[in-house]
Amino acid sequence: MSSCISDKPNKRNIELAAEYNITEPLWQRVPTRTASGELAFDFMMIVKGLNKLTANKQKSVLDNIYSVLELYSKVILLADLNMKINLLWVSHLPRPNLSIEIASQIIEVYPHARLISHRSD
Fold it and tell me: Tens of pLDDT along 13-72?
């Protein structure tokens, strides 16, 4: 199952993370450019073990991740959490080091998360 936290992060979407199905592949949904035509930056994180947690613990972790995404909601273009494979994809406005900054905040609230790929040039 895939959860999509799209456009501006929406707590309701995160809370429904285990139930929300997306039929369009991620590569078709990820924005490649901003509204002004700049190339978007993005990163992927593995959120190890998230889909194996109890419902209460999972909700707590998702709330914490949401709070980080909410802090950056003005620069995030899309956030997608695939619960089946524990993969978080975040696309954002092109700002140097922003991927590392957001990923670091997510790791702070969920230490099992790991940044696996980012574009920041």
Answer: 443 433 445 567 777 777 888 889 999 999 999 999 999 999 999 999 999 999 999 999
3-state secondary structure of 39: strand
The string of pLDDT tens digits covering residues 101-111 is: 999 999 999 99
CA 52 and chain centroid, separation: 18
Instruction: Judge whether 100 and 46 are in contact, CB under 8 Å.
Output: no
Q: What are phi and psi of 11, to 5 degrees?
A: -55, -35
Domain that holds residue 67: 3-118
Nearest CA to 61 among 1, 112, 20, 4? 112
From first CA to last CA, the distance across the chain in angstroms is 32
Amino acid at 52: K
Asked whether the beta carbons of 84 and 47 are under 8 A apart, the reply is: no
42 neighbors 90 (Cβ within 8 angstroms): yes
